[in-house]
From TrEMBL:
Name this protein carries in UniProt: FAD-binding domain-containing protein
InterPro entries: BBE (IPR012951), FAD-bd_PCMH (IPR016166), FAD-bd_PCMH-like_sf (IPR036318), FAD-bd_PCMH_sub2 (IPR016169), FAD-linked_Oxidoreductase (IPR050416), Oxid_FAD_bind_N (IPR006094)
Record's signal peptide: 1-18
Cited Gene3D superfamilies: 3.30.465.10, 3.40.462.20
Keywords: FAD, Flavoprotein, Oxidoreductase, Signal
Named cofactor requirement(s): FAD
GO MF terms, alphabetically ordered: FAD binding; oxidoreductase activity
């Protein structure tokens, strides 16, 4: 009884800010899904409430309906129901978008949750794997390994979904050697806006295949990918050094040395990152011998002013665990969340003036910030990176030449992140941009920045590829079924 009153009460609140037209549209959408037997979560059920909790609790949305398809036919029918009722359709895989784009990025979407598309099937002879988009990275890595010790290049956080990661980038601890996750996609099965199922590959629907690899969310719902796999390397050097720059000058010196090394001397076998926060670390993995590692790293460490840390040798799965924020195996329901604001920069080159501005801002504003902030520099590109080895217009991912993948992150552990704190990270990027006249820095949609306008998002996320993407959007999704505030064509 109490349950029903609660349910009616929350329904009342919801209906009270929806117009009569919206209400009838929702009723028609629900009818359509029901008629097609598409499984949905009932508004107010425990699963529904849990499913609306995104990774970033700061950014929540209320969908028009929530589908949990079990078959490709269900996905097709869900897309048809959305299109027919003019409700925008959004695929959700791991729900880790920083702007909660997997919940639409705004209210009123039909969510198509891909949780039932999570299988991993390896062809050990061909070294390929068919992987459902709803799988989470930790489970996928474990499943690949259990089938002939196979692996793919992917991100570090085990809860991230295959769908969002692979369609927009996918950078991790073997990317300089093996490329981004999206560089290893051989083909994708996609439900289009008109609910047709097609395969996209270099030989089938090649222009769609191009768009999917960097801007996928705006072009369809991918049910599964076929990836190229490799045999996991089993003896990897994992390192983690501590670094405490004493001044802005010391930080600038370290960043200058690191940038120069990454651009010119960092080999594909070396993957690493500088994690600047209250407690700064410099860590990574080397796929090679200890002697070669020492020869490469010792001069760099000394230039950066780094002297203490640990170096160990790890198997593949332990290497992944060393950089994950918990065990690889994921629990259902997924329930890890943070409350934060984040931004990114993908610089090809930070000028001395930009490095000075960045370092001065750190000294003046970041060091005194008692929230849990960080600035991560992933050593992404340069002459020795498989990512930069691909031209910027070969796929929709436009950041091939970025030396660093920089992520600015500010969070709190209790309560809600307040919008009055946005200025801290916005100011940091502004300081770097002001010191870099004439540079249009790339930004990474997988680190979606909710403070960008749609025009800013289009320009920074896709740089020179955006115009081509808008043309392809008109071909593959002319009625804009797959929309979101920052997606192509919004
Ligand atoms: C803790 C954490 C760690 C991270 N670490 C890394 C990292 O190491 N490397 C890295 O590159 N990134 C990393 N990311 C960023 C991550 O890649 C993105 O947030 C990614 O978009 C998440 O994908 P998802 O499927 O979990 O998210 P969702 O929110 O479900 O989806 C993200 C976007 O992709 C779309 N999408 C999802 N599935 C499909 C599909 N099947 N078909 C079409 N569109 C789809 C959604 O509509 C949405 O627009 C990290 C994020 C977090 C929160
Ligand atoms: C870059 O591409 C060339 C040609 O395909 C290849 O020989 C080389 O190994 C690649 N380098 C990296 C770092 O992937
Ligand atoms: C990337 O770098 C290469 C080599 O430095 C350069 O030729 C190319 O123009 C750059 N591409 C972009 C898109 O900046
Ligand atoms: C669906 O859309 C695609 C891309 O626009 C088009 O090629 C195809 O003919 C359409 N199919 C149907 C059945 O309309």
């Amino acid at each position: 009884m109490a349950y029903h009153i609660l349910l009616l009460a929350s329904l009342g609140i919801w209906l009270s800010n929806a117009s009569p037209a919206t209400i009838s549209k929702r009723a028609a959408l629900d009818d359509c899904l029901k008629t097609a037997s598409v499984p949905t979560l009932a508004s107010g059920s425990a699963d529904y409430t849990q499913s609306l909790k995104p990774f970033n609790l700061r950014v929540t949305f209320k969908p028009a309906a929530y589908a949990v398809p079990a078959t490709v036919k269900h996905v097709q029918d869900a897309v048809a129901c959305g299109a027919k009722n003019s409700v925008q359709v959004t695929a959700k895989s791991g729900g880790h978008s920083y702007g909660s784009h997997g919940l639409g990025g705004e209210d009123g979407h039909l969510i198509v949750d891909m949780r039932n598309f999570a299988s991993v099937t390896v062809d050990q002879t061909a070294q390929t794997a068919v992987i459902g988009t709803g799988g989470r990275l930790g489970d996928v890595a474990t499943a690949l390994y259990s089938q002939g010790k196979q692996a793919i290049s992917h991100g570090t956080c085990p809860g991230v979904g295959v769908g969002g990661l692979s369609l927009h980038g996918g950078y991790g601890l073997i990317s300089r050697l093996k490329g981004l996750t999206l560089d290893n996609i051989l083909s994708a099965d996609v439900v289009l806006a008109n609910s047709t199922l097609v395969t996209a590959s270099p030989t089938q629907n090649a222009d769609l295949f191009w768009a999917l690899r960097g801007a996928g969310a705006a072009f369809g719902i991918v049910t599964n990918f076929k990836f190229r796999t490799f045999t996991a390397p089993e003896s990897n050097i994992v390192f983690n050094y501590y670094f405490s720059p004493s001044s802005a000058t010391a930080l600038a010196t370290a960043l200058t040395a690191l940038q120069d090394f990454t651009r010119n001397s960092q080999p594909p076998e070396l993957n690493m990152r500088l994690f600047l926060s209250g407690f700064t670390t410099f860590s990574g993995v080397y796929y090679g011998t200890r002697a070669d590692y020492d020869k490469l790293m010792n001069p760099l460490l000394s230039k950066m002013g780094i002297s203490s840390g640990s170096v160990s040798t790890n198997t593949w799965l332990n290497t992944l665990t060393s950089f994950s924020n918990g065990p690889l195996k994921q629990v259902t329901p997924y329930d890890t969340h943070e409350n934060f604001f984040a931004k990114s920069l993908m610089p090809e080159y930070l000028s001395p003036a930009a490095i000075t501005a960045l370092s001065n801002y750190w000294s003046a504003n970041a060091r005194s910030n008692s929230r849990s902030w960080y600035l991560l520099f992933d050593c992404h590109g340069g002459k020795g990176s498989a990512i930069s080895n691909v031209s910027a217009d070969a796929t929709a991912y436009a950041h091939r030449n970025a030396t660093f993948k920089m992520q600015f992150y500010d969070r709190i552990y209790n309560g809600n992140y307040d919008s009055s704190w946005f200025g801290f990270l916005n100011g940091w990027i502004k300081a770097i941009s002001d010191a870099s006249p004439g540079v249009n820095f790339g930004m990474y949609i997988n680190y979606a920045d909710t403070s960008l306008t749609k025009d800013e998002a289009h320009s920074h996320y896709w740089l020179g590829n955006y115009e081509k993407l808008t043309k392809l959007k008109a071909v593959w999704d002319p009625t804009k079924v797959f929309e979101g505030p920052q997606l192509v064509g919004s």
